[in-house]
Design goal:
Distance between the termini: 38 Å
Shape: globular
Radius of gyration: 25 Å
Low-confidence stretches: 329-333
Mean pLDDT: 91
Number of strands: 18
Strand order of the largest sheet: 2-1-3-4-9-8-7-5-6
Number of helices: 15
Length: about 500
Amino acid sequence: MILILDFGSQTTQLIARRIRGFSVYSQIVPFNTPLAEIRKLRPSGIILSGGPASVAAKGSPRVKAQVLELGVPVLGICYGMQLLVKLLGGEVRPQAHSEFGRATLKHHSKDPLLARIPGKDTVWMSHNDAAVKLPGEWKTLAATDGCGQVVVRHKQRPFYGLQFHPEVHHTTHGTQLLKNFVLKVCGAKADWKITDYIEHTLREIRELLARAPGSRIVCAVSGGVDSTVLAALLNRAAPERVLPVFVDNGVLRAGEAEIVERNFRDKLGINLKAINARKHFIDALEGVSDPEQKRKIIGREFVNIFFRHLKPKDFLAQGTLYPDVIESVNVRGPSAVIKTHHNRVPEILELMKQNRVVEPLRELFKDEVRELGLKLGIPRDMLWRQPFPGPGLAVRLLGKITRERLETLRKADKIVLDEIKAAGLYDKLWQSFAVLLPVKAVGVMGDARTYADVVAVRAVESVDAMTADFAHLPWDVLGRISTRIINEVPGVNRVVYDVSSKPPGTIEWE
């Protein structure tokens, strides 16, 4: 196995995901995990993740020097590389110009780490500091125009440092580089598979219930990929002790509630307890414009509803994935909080303190969840639905929420999806949806001046939601979407297309 010491990077779990893709088990632990625990895990190699801190700052996170004496290969990524350099006697300083985004890597090395990596390659940078002086016995393997020490290694020991992020999709051959480290440098065995994860999780769920006689698992179901796989997994583990609950919160897409109930009943053989709470949620959200407040209100109202079904010994199950976790709370390392997710409101955090929240998918990414779902026998059309945020249309309606504006957005969103599907693009996109903006624009319709709403169209390509590029949709598809929305949705006279990537933006607007 490969052990990853987490220093708080937003992409640490991507490293683990890439490694599991090589059929090698990987585990993430905090950077300050005791040395005795690390020894017990007997890793084949250790990776030091990136992080938001500066190694030059007082109190910045460090790893104990003894970790470097375990006799296994070590790879430092971004902050991890700078920490290696600093700990072993080199020098790291802030740079006059930060590097963010794509850069061109150049090398002529025959080192096994760079096997099958082109002499000129695209890598993804995200750093302010850089190594300006390497420790003794270290050498440079590759550089970019903006940074002279981009790939470095110890001359005798299998210690490596990368200034860029090989784990992100935008580093062209990053997966190959990580594969070289794991299989060539560490000599790890490729003997781990997703069925191992299923068996391990089923065993954990059954053991949890065995320790709590009379308890149930109340499972929050939205109909999306994550909660669908969660419900199927729990149902396989202990069908008689799982209560799947679906709440129509009034901020779903057109026809969503009916589709979810039908799919679960007819395709999975699971009967949901369906609750129509549209009025309840919309009354609570009416007039609210702050996105954090929207998420917290929705989270709190969900909790209020689910608590009515939770007995004192029951557990609450959520289909939380790792991107949700890492963006909302400091899970392991000192990561920066990006936004509050609706399933991380105080009431749920309190349940977590009581060990009453079950999140079997929290270590996984969407593609892994889909693979797991296929192994569980879930139909492909249910697994390849585009992601839909837990707070639903509430975070795609910018500005104050009203029933009228929700209906405007719902109609526009349906047109976007209809046209994307008609063009055969649905399965090729990570997400595609409409956003109702909190501004109005002047227009001319029927020779008369209008002052009406603006709809933004968002379509992105991604493999894991941690990074994303805007989709280069055909002009004729965008044209049909725009024409239909303006003609068919009352109160809209302008449509724009979002061409920002993640980072610096997020996929959702709120």
